[in-house]
Design goal:
The protein has helices spanning 51-57, 61-64, 70-81, 91-104, 120-127, 135-141, 154-168, 207-223, 229-234; strands at residues 2-10, 21-30, 33-42, 85-88, 116-119. By secondary structure, the protein is α/β, with parallel strands linked by helices. It folds into two domains: 2-168, Ribonuclease H-like superfamily/Ribonuclease H (Nucleotidyltransferase, domain 5); 195-234, no CATH class. It has a five-stranded mixed sheet, sandwiched between helices.
Length: 235
């Protein structure tokens, strides 16, 4: 399965009002592994960034003035994403901008060039309802290191999103890696492990540990005014 993690930076929030894309970052994964194939473009938007947007991405009008127009990179971008699953955080925002840029040069909408679009913001809201689900918040929650992210950057954010996505979708039913029925190939064949052959070791608490545990329970019971559940269960 080929996936492209994509992020954009823009001059503002509204493509309908003329805001433009100034940066595109794409990172490729195949079978949930980074391939090292990335795409990164800085673009001349032919208009200034808003003050609020500049504070977020830090890309000045002077820096972008000699960069290519979107039309010059459109074919290279579309060839890279062709047929892939595109994973975006808050996909409606980025796809809206991409569609507007493509429309300006007479091209079909972005979604017609790709296999499908997956929105990780929608995924996160389903997994963590009622919580902040920004990319920064997900990095903190899923322990993804974003310490180098002082400003937003499309390629950096696409890489962070890839790591966040992997951690959001790494469902695990057991502590043993599923290796099937030991059907491997050549030297990589691995026999299935029969867990019934292992003896479970039970470590008994010491007298001191039991006393400390009882003292902690007593403190909790006192703090709750004698309303702790385990007291009523024991009774």
């Amino acid at each position: 399965m080929r996936q492209i993690f994509l992020d954009t930076e823009t001059t503002g929030l509204s493509p309908e009002s003329g805001d433009r894309i100034i940066e595109i970052g794409c990172i490729e994964l195949v079978s949930r592994r980074l391939t090292g194939r990335n795409k990164h473009f800085y673009l001349n938007p032919e208009r200034p960034s808003s003050d609020d947007a500049l504070k977020i991405h830090g890309l000045t009008d002077e820096f972008l003035s000699d960069k290519p127009l979107f039309a010059a990179v459109a074919d290279e971008l579309l060839e890279f994403v062709d047929g892939a699953e595109i994973v975006i955080h808050n996909a409606a925002f980025d796809v809206g901008f991409l569609n507007q840029e493509l429309s300006r040069i007479g091209r079909a909408p972005f979604t017609q060039a790709v296999g499908k679009v997956t929105d990780t913001l929608a995924m996160a809201r389903e997994m963590f309802p009622g919580k902040s689900n920004s990319l920064d918040a997900l990095c903190r929650r899923l322990e993804v290191d974003n310490s180098n992210r002082s400003l937003h950057g499309a390629l950096l954010d696409a890489g962070l999103l890839a790591e966040v996505y992997i951690r959001m979708t790494r469902g695990q039913d057991s502590l043993v890696i599923d290796i099937g029925d030991s059907t491997g190939v050549g030297e990589h064949a691995v026999a299935a492990i029969d867990l019934s052959t292992f003896e479970l070791i039970v470590v008994e608490p010491t007298v001191e540990e039991l006393a400390a545990h009882q003292a902690a329970l007593a403190e909790l019971d006192k703090a709750s005014g004698g309303r702790t559940v385990w007291r009523s269960l024991v009774a």
